[in-house]
What we know:
Residues 184-210 are annotated as: Disordered. This protein has a domain at 2-137 and 268-302. Helix content is 0%, strand content 35%. The chain has strands spanning 2-4, 10-13, 22-25, 28-30, 34-38, 40-47, 52-58, 77-85, 92-99, 118-124, 129-139, 264-281, 284-302.
Amino acid sequence: MRKVLGIVIFLITLTACNDGDLIDLSFDFEDEFTINECGQLIFYKINDAQNESLALSLSGISLESLFAFDEVLNQVQDTIIIERNINGTTNRLNYRVYNGTVTGNDLFCNPIPPANVSVRSEEDTPTGTVIITIIARDDDNDGIPAEFEDVNGNGNLFDDDSDNDGIPNFLDVDDDGDNVLTRDELTPNTLNTDPRINPLDTDGDGIPDYLDIDDDGDGALTRDEENILQDENPRNDITEPGGLPDYLNPNVSTSVPAVAFRPHAVVRTYTIKVQVNNVQFSFLNQTILDFGENVSTVTVQKFPVFN
């Protein structure tokens, strides 16, 4: 979906880097922007259809600083806000129109574009305030939305740790610590919905499997029912040929004590949003210019405490 940042199409004479010819402008860019670091931090977007670019270059900010969150977030979602003033030198917002197709970082990491690229026209806004908002959010992607993992119902997701492994349920891929992933203890109709509605409860004891340490109610802990392979995965231990895994089979209650939890990893999503206020191009005065956003993800390793 394209987002029109300014006036869609019109003709105007630009004096910077051109000979006074009329230039066809569109100023029409996608919502998403690209980030690059080459001496300066540069946010840019290119409209290939119109051979134009919009680039925001900032000094005194590193790419690393955009992701300077603690290993463990203090809230379900943490936010960093950075502000800079455009001054036309170290901090610039630049719009260019090119003759021919344009691509890539080389357009912005050098004061002079590559030899095969001709700048037909360009202009900087002399003023503006840049507001960068970086939002970090962790998610265990276990099939249960975070808002439904407040087991004690007090509104604090950080004090709900069903298996006492040091990782709250909303960041725990195995909420009950039975070495069967929470996602694998849900039915298709409860995946990514309210797990309290028709939860999978193999032994019918009123405790859903994803919070039940003995899923089949045979007296042997699910995590200990690894009679074939001791690999922290009870799902692949099937004693009865053609039968259910032992942890779901009440006819099999032999066990081998578990000694560790499965490795945990959560996905951290970084959403970077950029807004520029009080933009003044010769062809556009805009109080609030939504530059767009950039979304990236990394995997964060969690280390459950075995108990």
